[in-house]
Amino acid sequence: MTQEQFFKEISDAIINLEKEKAVELAHRAVNENMNLLEVIEKGFGDGIRRIGDLWEEGEFFLPELMLGGTIMQESMDILLPKLKSGGENISSGTVVIATIEGDIHSIGKTIVGTMLSANGFEVYDLGADVPAEQIIETAIEKNADVIGVSALLTTTMFGQKKIVEILEEKGIRSKFKVIIGGAPVNKSWTEECKADGFAGSAVEAVKLVKELLNK
Ligand code: B12
Q1: What is the dihedral of CA 182, 126, 163, 143, to 10 degrees?
Q2: CATH class name, domain 3-85
Q3: Which of 53, 80, 154, 163 has its C-alpha lying 20 to 30 A from 172's C-alpha?
């Protein structure tokens, strides 16, 4: 089986909501020492995004979306710890990351946090549905270099802008690099938020943080 066929098998298992198969394929990827990031992005990530498309088209309903999310989460529980253990061990900077208040989508944010951690950054992942004020307080407390804010809903994206606004109000904007991400985030929204950058994948997020911190 080629790698592409393996990724397709994973994506199909997710879209067919076959939990046992998805979990088995995650274990297989670990046991066969595959590039786990590629497995996550091209296999599992592809499947869950296809579920989102079907949901939008009215082919799937909320229970399917939720089951897809659960299968994805369980698969990530197998893959992400392995991704972490493969990483370098020098601290290149501190990142506080969270999904903004009102938004419970956590999968992409967790992958980004894990990848940053695997690349030597000290990462504080505050989880999902986190108020802007709490994210900022933690960034101050941990003396963070970077604040990463995820938003998957068009209604919660505004929280990303709020982060920058609060930092400006407090007169501490220049102390942090603010990066944003999530399906609806693009270049023009990043500019509107006056954020320092955005990334569409975990690999790009690592590249972005390294660039911003000159590492
Ligand atoms: C899984 C899922 C869920 C799961 C989430 C489970 C979980 N624990 O996360 C559940 C079932 C709970 C869910 C709920 C809802 N969902 Co939902 N969900 C999705 C789905 C299918 C996939 C999201 C995902 O995990 N993608 C896989 C990851 C790997 O990709 P990612 O999140 O984009 O992250 C990558 C990049 O964006 C980037 N990135 C992400 N975060 C960050 C942060 C930083 C700092 C950086 C640099 C980069 C970065 O790197 C990541 C890794 O590659 C999307 C569809 C989609 N296309 O996104 C809909 C989607 C986001 N959901 C949607 C909706 C509407 C909802 C609900 C409102 C449904 C409802 N009526 O209840 C609720 C929201 C409740 C709430 N208050 O938050 C809509 C949003 C529409 C919109 N325009 O606002 C979408 C787009 C579906 C659709 N096509 O319509 N959902």
Answers
A1: -130
A2: mainly alpha
A3: 154
